[in-house]
Amino acid sequence: RGYTSVYSPDLVGDLPLEGGQFNSGNWKALVRAKLEVVTQVLDLGFNIFFTDVDIVWKENVMYDVTKGLNHSSVFLLDRDPAKKRNSEANTGFYYLKAHQKNRDLVGKALSLGKRKEKSLWDDQKLVNFAFKSRNFKEQRNLMPQPEYSNGCMLKTLESWEEVRRVKALHANCSINKKAKFMMLCLYDMWYCKKNEDGTIVRDVGEEEFRTLGCEVKDLPEVKPEVVEEV
Questions:
Q1: What pLDDT is recorded for position 3?
Q2: Which end of the chain has the smaller Cβ count within 10 Å, N or C?
């Protein structure tokens, strides 16, 4: 579909605008720039609710995240069961109140990125390294799962009951845009709203839907619930 993006050297300095493949040096420079923007918003005295463009909202979670979870800062848990370190804060979906400690956290991450040995780290790695400081441990609040999931977590859910509990999803853990579509299609999450009669208005054309090779009937089989005998 394409997304409108704004780039201003006055805000984030000169950035490489080409060759930004995932995990490349140019990509890491681009995502580190997100922290510069967050800093400027906090400095203006505004709270910030940051989301990447590949976030799927199944319902309005604004109140839940900004007030219901009752934290001045809250991050999506970037859980990848395939990795040993599977409890990082995800910097694609988070909320920060305009508190000095949150401003200091982002500032710490930015200052770490200026060190030579950490100059090629992405924003997520920098923020999670900053969390290791005892000064910022109280800022490391994570959203509950499966209500707030990332792509790796979604693929491990074993029942439709768990899938239906998901309120918002970061569609990461996918190698390209098509893989993201496929994942969302398989878990029946690629839609934007419902008609008054309850039918779903899909956010992708039928022809493109077929091109991606997925239909509603292709939903994955649900693994049976395990019930222990008493």
A1: 53
A2: C
